[in-house]
Model the fold of this input.
Amino acid sequence: MDRLGIAIVGASMRSSMMATYLNEYPEQGYVTGYYDLIPQRAELLIDKHELKDTVIYPSLKAAVTDPKVSAVFIGTSDSAHRRPVVEALKAGKHVFCEKPMAITLRDCDAIMAAATAAHSVFYLGMNLRHGPVHEKLHEIMTSGELGRILTIEANEYYVGGRTYFRRWNRLRKFGGGLWITKACHDFDLLNWMAGADPQTVYATASLSHYRPRADAAQQCRHCKLQFSCPDYYDILNLPKPHDDLMRGLRLIAEEHGEEPGDLCLFNAEKDTFDNGIAVVTYANDIRATYTVNVLTARSTRQMRVVGTEGMIEADMSDGKILVTERHTGRQWHYDMRGLMASGHGGADDRLVKDFIHTVHTGKKPRTGWAEGKRAIEVALAAQQSMETGQVVRF
Done:
């Protein structure tokens, strides 16, 4: 199998995932270079991952037309996916695009048009489909042993999600709001598990906690509450930016005119929520609920599936799945912890591996443009329902 030359567009935490994987499996590919609007961010990642012979491209065009490049990884902010995806596909390159596919249906359609016209792979990074826990859940659900599936409950509790309110994710113009930037791959997961088209969406959400506070400053470094606030973020107390990748990337961005990396979670401008619940009904009479909450005491994803012959309960943080037969009460466990070494519960390594395998074999991507657009349709419906208080029908 030939090694893939992969160009990275967007020097970000998620693009760091690709470099980490290729360092561990160099026989599968290598990073040819980075393109980022701030070249110093690319320099930081090159140094962090000790990437030899990796260049910094002067432009997007240079990145997507480099003859050494077989594939392009898109790791920009969500609203900026369309242009690099379309340009890379037009240049004949395979594309791995981080989720979500885009934040508007217009941009989704533009990507779809480019992907269907291209002779290369468009792969969408919906990592949850690749996690060992969710793969096993899907296998059990589709095996028939639970009988006819009736309800699915999916809960996401994410302590680190509070940091969205000092990052670009807090603004819809960059991330579409949490129903898109965060929940899109959970909606994709529900669509996959249900195995049918969504018919209605009802959602409710609120910014319940991270509201403006008169006693707090705009930035943590200037705040009198820094010694008592549990959300205090000391971005400056570092020997050098390289000691923490996210801090380093944010300090570099600040040096080049972007907003500070230690914005107050309460006082930063925002137009999204910190907790919400969505209810989705499907054409095959399955009802699903999804809860997202970034005010929790621990991070995990939980799922409970009930069928006419049994039920499954799973918790991604401990990697265990419990199956209970309905009529006998007999129970058994699956322990997936041995498969969960990489990020997102073991999903990240499997995700990149499957992308590379798809490029070499030409098989259908596990998640491509069709799945990506459908997830955005559900997310936008949740946003509309939240704003209007009405059920949205497809």
